[in-house]
Amino acid sequence: MQNDRLIIAGREFTSRLFVGTGKYKDFVETKKAIEASGADVVTVAVRRVNITDRSKENLLDYLDPKKYTILPNTAGCYNVEDALRYSRLARAAGVSDLIKLEVLGDERTLFPDTAGLIEAAKILVKEGFIVLPYTNDDPIVAQKLVDIGCPAVMPLAAPIGSGLGIRNPYNLKIIMEMIKVPIIVDAGVGTASDAALAMELGADAVLMNTAIAGAQDPIAMAEAMKYAVYAGRLAYKAGRIPRKLYATASSPIEGML
Amino acid sequence: MVEAIQIQVNGEQRGCHAGATVGDLLRELAIKTERVAVELNLEILDRKDFDHRSLKPGDRVEILSFIGGGAPVEVQGKGEDSVHAE
What we know:
The structure holds 2 protein chains of 2 kinds.
Chain A: E1 6-8, E2 11-13, E3 17-20, H1 27-37, E4 41-48, E5 69-72, H2 80-93, E6 98-101, H3 114-126, E7 130-135, H4 139-148, E8 154-155, H5 169-178, E9 184-186, H6 192-201, E10 205-208, H7 210-213, H8 218-238
Parallel strand pairs in A: 3-4, 3-10, 4-5, 6-7, 7-8, 9-10
Antiparallel strand pairs in A: 1-2
Chain B: E1 4-9, E2 12-17, H1 22-28, E3 36-40, E4 43-44, E5 60-68
Parallel strand pairs in B: 1-5
Antiparallel strand pairs in B: 1-2, 3-4, 3-5
């Protein structure tokens, strides 16, 4: 696994766990959890600066952009126009051309509006963005996003923050077989086994936020996720045995009394 | 006396000196220019133009930066009933 690097748009990553930075108690906890997760890529949102209370600290004072790849997202955008506006603001705020593109369809499920997603992705790719789209577990939409020029696709495992785990392993498996760019399973992971399962299915990486930030002990869960993603990747590379309905003895019969 | 004008910053009314630039506004608010994005009347400004763009009465300025996120903050707290489906 020494040379098992994840490469997206020419950028190399050691860790296959991407983490969000929302919902933590404070920046110190955020920093500790991210360190424990071993992640290289961290997602951030773009919001108004608090101009009335300037004592509020900045997240990037705690996350060194030289150490981490900062991946801004368009979380909270429910239409193409807003997603484009936030993407452009993220680029202007100045870390890179990377954008985790979210165009949400509905507040209750936070499921992606895939028509809007495709439309926004087309425009952003033309503008030179490196678009990582948060999408449904729909192989056809995933292929369309690749055709547009997205260098990776991020299908959901379950609704954002739901912790339901991998709801549709078969669709994810089809996406992984069909799509020739890295697949990052994004959203819905609840615990370590979910992350391991995503990797065992053949995901190139897993992105999560709530599963870590919302755990009783976020720092311990971050570490658990690090090992889960690593173990899942190892198991995938190792190649699991086929499932069989009946037993196959592990010990030889020969030599028995 | 420098003439004062009214502008809107991040949705709030605010006075500033006539002839002040976006850069002046950021300094007055003690906001470091690195890692913020500024939108002036919906136009996203290049950081190197902050000191060249002067503010006019009624201008709408948005100053944004990166915050913790991964899940949309606005909808947190909704739909958190536990699931009994399984």
